[in-house]
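Give me structure tokens for this 373-residue protein.
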Amino acid sequence: MWKRSNWGVFQNHNNLRKPITKEDRKPGEYPYYGANGIQDYVDDYTVDGTYLLIGEDGSVITKHDTPVINWLEGKAWINNHAHILTLKDSSGSLRYYYHRLKRVNIYPFITGANPLKLTRKNLDNIAIYVHSPKVQIAIANHLDDLKASTDELAANLEREAEIREKLYKGAQRRILLNAINHPDVQRKAMKTFARRNRGISITAEKMRELEKLPGDDIRIFAGGQTFADVSSDHVDKKYTYTEPSIIAKTRGIISFERYSDPFTHKSEIWSYTVQDDNVDQDFIYFYLDFLRDDLTEYALTKSVRITQLSTKDLDNLIVPLPPLEVQREATSILNELESSSHFLVSQARQAAENYRKGYSYALDRLFDFSRFN
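Here you go.
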């Protein structure tokens, strides 16, 4: 049912590789492959057939220490950064090896530093357990069917999540527009009703270092979804905030987040704490979230290297404020909508991830030869 084999089972077709600079490429219909996949589309091809492509230098190893693999059927142009492989023995299944190699540790065979390299000699010397040719075909067919079905189910769930997000954004827009079109609305700059909080100077490396130490009673926010829960003993009390606030993530992907536990943040972002009894802080959060796409578009027009808003941009932002009871009515509805929407979206995305894990689990089970080592 199985045997120990080295990668000498492959027929190498590296003589078909041909690099071409970006300036010399003519746009066309044929994919142009590098070590980690399609880099471009060009007007000619160097191969026509079914091949397994393994990264040779540059992007050659994944975070799981497995090879970077691409499957090719048809016409394409391959540059000199990928090995081009078929099987010497036609009784086996090349598709089987596409799946099998996703569970092979190639770290000991990688040479070089910049760039990393998986040479042809080292490639041929990697020994692995494989199934017999007849079983290879059966396993490859099973895994192809499994991956196709799980990918389709996961994609459908991702689309469902996106639809639910759009439905929520549409409802959010209608509720906020209804509130800010109130006849008694007042327009005020953010700086007139909210205190802007300053952050601390800290690197991402330092955040990771502090997170490993005992204690987690304060959260340090960085951009995007990045944060670290650390001990407050390591944070300047001057920049520790305990009141419910709005975190303004204004670099890269612009977003806003409410937070009510002790926190601080990196100095390049900031937060707001509403100080006016006639302003509902949740209403401000929802309004800023409502404006996120517009603020991103504005930031792109004024940014040179990275999408970014300045403190002045948000301090001077004019916010339409209806009477307090109207603000609270709107936020009461929006809180319920956001909570239910986030729950349904996270459920759909978790289900999608679970389906994807089904393929990974099958690889683990089918290619577990540890009892033979």
